[in-house]
């Protein structure tokens, strides 16, 4: 039965109105709900915003709210730096842009590294490794005086400011002040991780009220830098033409002039002039503005917000066997794209084949994926391990991630052993480490479970006993025990008045001596059954009086002697050794004043501090050697010699 026309019209209008209202409510609800969910009700609370919360906010913008505009704006942010002659001259001089494939690989590598750094959790190994690689690649030129701090700061400013500007110009809504604050918190921390100085900003001495305050000062400085330094140069023009060639590589030849003019119309006049680009006809700008306004209106009123299961995924998880990941998109050549039927024979692939473009699958484009440390110029692959290792260690400590020696020991054992990890209270950090370990390739015949978490209080003898019991029940055996517990309190070592606290002595003796004895005793039968080994982490403070406190130094010396005693008592079935690191730039080591850290470096014969990677590698050597027992290995750059 058909309803009368007027009644049908009412129902249709009601349905459309209800749908429009639903779209509006859901779109703005997500915008407004994040600050409530993260418990930042007003600006006075923004000063306590954590890096993790800031990253969560930024991830929502990049994956759910504005994935297309954020992606394109980051590409153009990098492109915009080419309008600064001091930057463009260096890039042209590297020769990496001399051919289309090398230029597209550089663009792909840059995109992959930035995406890994920005979209992975700040305390993840992938983000930390990406920053370490960036710092290594930039560091060579910074040391040579070819990259200035101002150039670095300007580049950083564009990566945070351009997505905000493009969103305001091309999206259905702009970025809120709360979202701007979150982006400020995140990018300020990233700049610090990249050793970029903010001394040129007005509030550098007294500090910033919150991330938004920092961002506002950065934007003002960035615009001033642009006004002074974005001037015409041949090297700017060379980079601009080369970048447009990459961006339009897979566009049919007949359409490339139109694509070039359209892309040029996206640039502000100052940048067009600096790159010596012709001003596009006004009709292009008018058409673009009309299309943008139509898109804005449609998104705001007729399209429901993107659900989480349709979020933009920029890269894959690490392959558990190879440790590689694949990227999710490409512009010119399919670098690091996983070959699939749809990517090789789908409509886009068929069109690319028709016009002579490249599709995923060619070995020279690494269809097997990428490892972060292998990105960058081919001549540098495999180099810089020491520099990147030191950066990774410092960042793990700065970002409160799986930062310590225990976590790194778990990493080096993960490829060949099943690993049980004890944690005291931070379950989030422990779970994060577990997830990271699961991505590390293991033996082909993996036993399950490969990894297991146990919460235990190492200052409690029953808790230590339960730790060993649960480990054996879960894994069925014990081959290696690494005893990494310890405690101290920061004092002035040479001030005797600070060294007579009875509580300090009692706690140091419990955590630095008794805990190791309890653990060795609880594990001795299982270790003997498999002729295993027990390795404890002492300190160079136990070898040479030094460190954070006298109780710590004395009890660490006792710990070393305990290991030697156990080596005698538990032989021949069990090997017992200890390692004694010097100062490590872990979360604890960074509590020492910078002057003391620098003095520690100068006191070493090698003029460098040991890293957690150095120590973890030595633990693995002791675990695998069948002939070493009763030894204490100092890992301190020679400071105790």
Automatic annotation (TrEMBL):
CDD domains: SDR_c (cd05233). PANTHER family: ER-BOUND OXYGENASE MPAB_MPAB'_RUBBER OXYGENASE CATALYTIC DOMAIN-CONTAINING PROTEIN, PTHR36124. One of its GO terms (molecular function) is oxidoreductase activity. The lineage of its organism: Eukaryota, Fungi, Dikarya, Ascomycota, Pezizomycotina. InterPro entries: MPAB (IPR046366), NAD(P)-bd_dom_sf (IPR036291), SDR_fam (IPR002347). Gene3D superfamilies: NAD(P)-binding Rossmann-like Domain. It comes from the Eukaryota. This is Nad-binding protein.
């Amino acid at each position: 039965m058909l309803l009368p026309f007027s009644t049908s019209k009412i129902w249709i209008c009601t349905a459309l109105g209800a749908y429009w209202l639903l779209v509006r409510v859901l779109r703005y609800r997500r915008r407004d709900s994040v600050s409530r969910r993260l418990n930042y009700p007003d600006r006075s609370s923004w000063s306590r915003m954590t890096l993790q919360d800031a990253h969560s906010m930024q991830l929502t913008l990049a994956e759910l709210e504005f994935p297309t505009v954020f992606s394109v704006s980051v590409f153009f942010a990098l492109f915009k730096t080419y309008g600064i002659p001091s930057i463009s001259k260096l890039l042209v001089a590297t020769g990496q842009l001399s051919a289309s494939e090398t230029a597209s690989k550089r663009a792909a590598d840059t995109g992959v590294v930035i995406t890994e750094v920005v979209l992975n959790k700040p305390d993840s190994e992938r983000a930390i490794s990406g920053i370490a690689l960036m710092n290594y690649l930039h560091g060579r030129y910074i040391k040579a005086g070819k990259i200035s701090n101002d150039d670095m700061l300007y580049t950083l400013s564009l990566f945070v400011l351009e997505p905000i500007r493009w969103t305001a110009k091309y999206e259905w809504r702009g970025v809120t002040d709360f979202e701007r604050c979150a982006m400020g918190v995140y990018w300020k921390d990233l700049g610090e991780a990249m050793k970029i100085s903010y001394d040129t900003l007005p509030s550098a001495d007294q500090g910033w009220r919150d991330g938004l305050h920092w961002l506002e000062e950065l934007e003002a400085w960035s615009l001033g830098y642009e006004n002074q330094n974005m001037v015409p140069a041949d090297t700017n023009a060379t980079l601009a033409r080369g970048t447009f060639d990459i961006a339009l590589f897979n566009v049919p030849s007949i359409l490339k002039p139109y694509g070039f003019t359209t892309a040029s119309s996206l640039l502000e006049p100052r940048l067009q002039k600096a790159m010596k680009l012709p001003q596009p006809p006004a009709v292009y700008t008018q058409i673009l503005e009309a299309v943008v306004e139509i898109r804005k209106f449609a998104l705001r009123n007729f399209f429901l917000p993107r659900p989480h299961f349709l979020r933009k995924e920029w890269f894959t998880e690490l392959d558990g066997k190879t440790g590689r990941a694949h990227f999710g998109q490409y512009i010119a050549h399919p670098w690091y794209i996983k070959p699939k039927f749809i990517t090789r024979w789908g409509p886009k692939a068929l069109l690319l084949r028709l016009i002579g473009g490249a599709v995923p699958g060619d070995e020279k484009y690494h269809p097997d994926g990428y490892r972060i440390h292998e990105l960058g110029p081919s001549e540098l692959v495999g180099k810089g391990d020491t520099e990147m290792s030191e950066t990774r260690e410092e960042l793990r400590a700065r970002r409160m991630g799986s930062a310590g020696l225990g976590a790194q020991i778990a990493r080096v054992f993960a490829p060949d052993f099943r690993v049980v990890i004890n944690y005291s209270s931070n379950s989030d950090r422990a779970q994060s480490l577990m997830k990271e370990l699961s991505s590390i390739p293991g033996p082909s015949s993996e036993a399950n479970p490969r990894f297991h978490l146990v919460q235990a209080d190492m200052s409690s003898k029953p808790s230590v006993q339960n730790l060993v019991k649960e480990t054996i029940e879960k894994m069925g055996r014990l081959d290696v025990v690494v005893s990494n517990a310890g405690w101290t309190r920061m004092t002035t070592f040479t001030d005797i008045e600070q060294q007579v606290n009875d509580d300090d002595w009692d706690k140091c003796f419990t955590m630095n001596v008794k805990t190791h004895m309890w653990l060795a005793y609880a594990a001795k039968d299982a270790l003997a059954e498999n002729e295993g080994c027990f390795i404890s982490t002492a300190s160079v403070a136990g070898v040479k009086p030094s460190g954070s406190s006298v109780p710590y130094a004395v009890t660490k010396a006792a710990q070393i002697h305990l290991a030697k005693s156990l080596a005698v008592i538990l032989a021949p079935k069990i090997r017992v050794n200890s390692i004694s690191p010097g100062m490590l730039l872990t979360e604890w080591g960074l509590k020492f004043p910078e002057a003391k850290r620098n003095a520690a470096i100068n006191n070493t014969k090698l003029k460098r501090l040991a890293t957690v990677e150095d120590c973890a590698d030595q633990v693995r050597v002791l675990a695998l050697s069948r002939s070493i027992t009763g030894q204490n290995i100092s890992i301190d750059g020679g400071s105790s010699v």
